[in-house]
Amino acid sequence: MMKKLCLLLFFVSMFGFLTFGDSGEQEEIDFLLFLPNSGNRFVNEDRAMIQLDKMANYLLTKDLSPGQIVVHGYAAAVVNDIDSVHLSRDRAIYVINELKKRGLSGELFAEPVANGSVDLWGSNTDEKDKSLNRRVRVLLDNTILTPAAMLAETEAVDTGVETPDAENLQEVKQPEIATEKTGFQLPWWIIPLALIGLAVIAAIIFLASRRRSSSSGEKKMYVLKDEEIRSYAYELYLQRNDQNGDATQDWHQSVSELTAYYEAKGYWVILDWEIQTLAA
Fold first, then answer.
1. How far apart are CA 268 and CA 262, in angstroms?
2. What is the pLDDT of residues 178-225, one digit of tens each?
3. Given a cut of 90, is residue 271 above it in pLDDT?
4. CA-CA-CA-CA torsion sign (167, 169, 175, 179)
5. Of 220, 223, 244, 222, the residue nearest 234 (C-alpha)
6. Rounded to 10 degrees, what is the CA torsion of 173, 174, 177, 180?
C-alpha cells in the first residue's frame, strides 16, 4: 500500500510541476548576446555570425513586405554613464546592418525598438544574470525567430510537410513596457501550497485505506446457544466418569472454554440469552 501511495504522490508532483511550471518554449540563452557596454560585439562572435547567417538565409526564403521584420534591442541594468536606451538601440541597429549585409533589403525592417534596461531573462543581481539581458530579438509578424524554430520549419519544408509559420515559431506579444515578463512565471507560493495539498491528499488516502483494511478484517459474530453449552457441560460430566459434580460450575466452565475456542477462530462470541435480552 505504501508503494502505491509513493507512486501516486510522485505522479501528482510531476503533474503539478508540468502544469504550473514554465511550459512555454524557451529561447536559447546564448542567442545573439552582446558584451557589456557594447553595441557591436557579441559574447561569442563566431556563434553569433553563424546564427545571423542562418537567420538571413531563412528570411530570404520568405515573401516579405516592407517593415515586416522588427528588431528589439535590450540592455542590462547597470550603474554607469551609458544610456541603456541608446545602447539597446545600437544593438538592434547592428543586427539589422548585419542582416542587410547578408542580402536582406533595408525596407523589410521596421524602426528598431529600443527597450533599454530590462530584467526579462536575468535579475541583474550579478554578471551572469546581467549577461542574459544584453541581447536582441528579431520578430517576424510578432513571432520570435529562434534557431530551433527556424530549423524546425526548414526541416518540415524539406520533407514536404506544410507547416504554418505560426505553428512552428514561438509567438509572443511585443513588450509594451521594458519590464514585461515573457512566458509564465511560477509564483513562489505555488510550491508550498502544492506540497500542503499533496500532504492532505496523502493523509486522506492513508486514512481511507486504513478504514477499508480494518473493516475487511472485522470479526464475525457467533451466537453461543444454550443447547451447545449444555452439550459441552454433559461432556465434562462424562469426563468425570459419570460422577456428580457442581452443575453451575460445569455451565460456567463450558461457557468459558467454548468462548475461548470460537474467539481463537476469529469470532466475537455472544450468548444466546444476551441476544434475547437485547431484542426484548
1. 8
2. 444 444 556 667 788 788 888 888 878 877 766 665 555 567 888 888
3. no
4. positive
5. 244
6. 50
How are strands ordered across the β-sheet holding 69-75?
113-117, 69-75, 136-140, 143-144, 170-171
Q: Which burial class, exposed, middle or buried, applies to 103 when counting CB atoms under 10 A from its CB (0-12, 13-18, 19+)?
A: exposed
| Cross-strand bridge partners of residue 70 | 139
- Residue 38 · residue 88 · CB < 8 Å: no
Residue 86's contacts (CB-CB under 8 Å, 6 or more residues apart) are: 114
180 and 74 in contact (C-beta within 8 Å)?
no
Rounded to 5°, angle at Cα 64 from 62 and 67: 145
Sign of CA dihedral 265, 268, 274, 280: negative
Interval 250-266: pLDDT, tens: 888 889 999 999 888 88
Determine the average pLDDT of the residues in 56-76.
93
Topology (CATH) of 24-171: 60s Ribosomal Protein L30; Chain: A; (3.30.1330)
Range(s) within the chain of domains with CATH label 3.30.1330.60: 24-171
